[in-house]
Write a structure and sequence with these properties.
Keywords: Ligase, Transferase, Ubl conjugation pathway. It is an enzyme of class 2 (transferase). By secondary structure, the protein is an alpha/beta fold. It has two domains: 39 residues, no CATH class; 83 residues, 2-Layer Sandwich (Hect, E3 ligase catalytic fold), CATH 3.30.2410. Helices cover 49% and strands 8% of the residues. A hairpin with a 4-residue loop joins strand 3 and strand 4. The N and C termini lie far apart (68 Å).
Length: 142
């Protein structure tokens, strides 16, 4: 039985995926030559390619740049009060809305900055919040 289990596990995790994995590896190495990636440990490489999955939301708040707002404006205080009450999954959804990804880039949360700007609409009650994902700007009507 042990030999059967060992052979089965080897088939499932190695043999059955050998061809698709080799095709993936060929394509990956064509775009990203191996000598540049050898300096990373597997965990570090995963962070570089996929980004961080653990967040300090208060650090995110600390790194915000305000445009046409001040940190103590009512709109900003209300925003952060509501934000910190959200469940973790909703906070990640906000991050995806803001940046296009629910992960923080490999350089880390302490360097991730975004701006909250007032779109300065004539009637802000008729405007929804929107984001510029390329520049990491949240346009938050008053």
């Amino acid at each position: 039985r042990k030999e059967f289990v060992d052979l089965y596990v080897n088939y499932v995790f190695n043999e059955s995926i050998r061809k698709p994995f080799e095709d993936f590896m060929d394509g990956f190495l064509r775009g990203c030559p191996a000598r540049k990636w050898k300096m990373f440990l597997p965990v570090e490489l995963q962070i570089v390619l996929q980004g961080h999955t653990k967040f300090d939301w208060h650090l995110l708040e600390k790194n915000v740049i305000y445009r046409q707002y001040k940190k103590l404006d009512r709109t900003i205080r209300n925003f952060w009060t509501v934000f910190h009450k959200l469940p973790e999954e909703k906070k990640k959804m906000f991050l995806a809305f803001l940046s296009g990804s629910d992960r923080i880039p490999g350089y880390g949360l302490e360097h991730f900055k975004f701006a909250i700007a007032d779109p300065q609409a004539q009637n802000p009650d008729e405007l929804y919040p929107f984001a510029n994902t390329c520049s990491h700007i949240l346009f938050l009507p008053r």
